[in-house]
Amino acid sequence: MRTADRDLAELADEFVIGLCDPEEQREVEQRLENEADLAAHVELARQRFAALDAATPEEALPEGLWTRITRRLDALEAGGAESQEPETGATVTDLGAARAARSGGIGWTGFTAVTAVAASLVLAIALAWNVLTAVDPKVIAVLVSDDGQPVAMIEGTQDNTTLVTMLGDTDVPAGTVLQLWTKPDPDGPPVSVGVFDEPQKTVLEAMGLPAPTVDQLYEITFEQPGGSPTGLPTGPILGKGFTKEPN
User: Fold this and answer.
1) Around 224, how many Cα atoms within 13 Å sit in the side-chain half-sphere?
2) 204 beta partners
3) In a domain? residue 213
4) Which of these, 213, 88, 89, lies nearest to 156 by C-alpha position?
């Protein structure tokens, strides 16, 4: 399997933005059925790139753009690639889309020529995006629901700063909030890490807890506003999972 030893975050980014070749794409799709960690990374990548796409204003393409793009593709296929930069409004992914639309698929030679540049551009943007929102995790946990669906990713740092990234759409019942719990002592009671109202990326800081370790349990429950009145989980469990070292 070609993707077996790949970094999950990098593989997920390439899968989401369409940079995997057909064999890699089939492998990832098969792995997604059984690997919750990979599914979580793919969902995170989709959310990141969707946010980037939403932040970019739409602009009309210049008249005759597609004609110029197809002419340049003909030159590339003939071995006479032009060194001139694309016209304003044309992007590397436009070139790939044009070739796919024109021929019904992308040949491997053309695919590598176009996507090599596309990968460097898009992954550079993704890296910048991650730097702005990421922590330096000591452990990571993917929390799954009772039916096995990944619902959140937990990243815990040495100083117990915890990044919670919700995966997919989470329906928070009216009159409830989300509360994150963990068990630093496997034989002890759950301890609250924090409460958050909206199912979105959230940073929580729990004072007085030891640094998280591998195989530490985390779970999210629905609680009343302000959090559980008892100091222990009382509401339905959204998802739970155990930590492991980051890849």
Assistant:
1) 6
2) 162
3) yes
4) 213
The answer to the question of residue 180 being in a domain is: yes
Residue 86 lies in a domain: yes
Domain that holds residue 87: 65-132
What count of Cα atoms within 13 Å lies in the side-chain half-sphere of residue 9?
Answer: 10
Residue 59's pLDDT is: 59
Written as one string, the DSSP assignment of the chain is: -TTTTS-HHHHHHHHHTT-S-HHHHHHHHHHHTT-HHHHHHHHHHHHHHHHHHHTSPP-PPPTTHHHHHHHHHHHHHTT----SPPPTT--HHHHHHHHHHHHSS--HHHHHHHHHHHHHHHHHHHHHHHHHH----SEEEEEE-TTS-EEEEEEE-TT-EEEEEE-S---PPTT-EEEEEEESSTTS--EEEEEESSSS-EEEE-TTPPPP-TT-EEEEEEE-TTS-TTSS--S-EEEEEE-B---
42 and 15 together in one domain: yes
Number of domains in the chain: 3
Q: In this structure, is residue 42 part of a structural domain?
A: yes
The pLDDT tens digits for 34-92 are 888 888 888 888 877 765 555 455 556 667 767 777 777 777 767 654 444 444 444 44
Shared domain for 211 and 177, answered yes or no, is yes
Amino acid identity of residue 24, one-letter, is: E
Which domain-ending residue is among 83, 100, 132? Answer: 132
Specify whether 159 is located in the same domain as 234: yes
Q: Judging by beta carbons within 10 Å of its beta carbon (0-12, 13-18, 19+), is residue 230 exposed, middle or buried?
A: exposed
